[in-house]
Here is the input.
Amino acid sequence: MRRLLIAGNWKMNKTVPEAIELVRGLKERLKCVEDRDVLICPPFTALYPVSKELEGSQILLGGQNMFYEEKGAFTGEISPLMLKDVGCSFVILGHSERRHIFGEDDKLINKKVISAVKHGLIPILCVGERIEEREEGRTEEVIEKQVREGLKGLSSKDEFVIAYEPVWAIGTGKTATPEMAQEVHSFIREILKELFGEEKAGRVRVLYGGSVKPENAKGLLEMPDIDGALVGGASLKAESFSAIVQFD
Ligand code: PEP
Here is the structure.
């Protein structure tokens, strides 16, 4: 029904030689993955050399962020055209580190989502509650706002992915249990039904992210509404990332 998508978010890690070494390790280890999509999101500086190294491989390439304009006086930013130019087909948007360290809000993230789709990139919209919001019983309220505002202006014809990443589980070693994650994923799918109809909601991939490791991947990925993973720390080593991708 929904094809699994396992994505690696390398964050601000890997020089070019380190990136090439990691990609070579992945190419060696990833066998029999025709039934799922594998995506890596290196830092901007490594995208072009990695895209050359990926020629002939089925591993997909994505950016970790982008600005919504095509070009111009936006010092330090990267445009959708630039990501496409180096072979990206996906872009992660609204990651909690962008929201909480760099102050990105739903309005800005939505502009980026719209621009990504317009330029033929598949946005992976990240949403997730902070620990205090979960403890106050506000998880659904927070997720609903981020999903509705992040996807504003899209139609059922547009391709996008959602990543549910509880902020308290990112890089902390604390993972949501498969049941906790499933509950939020199914809530997200209900919102998608309201926004885009049942048929489209059934086709949108909703990934889980937050301390996914080879040891917990199977339990999470076997849940009915978890359609893949967005992996941070464990995507930095070929051994652990390929073990997650080939969890079954
Ligand atoms: C992430 O940054 O998207 C992430 C889920 O990180 P980690 O796997 O390290 O928790």
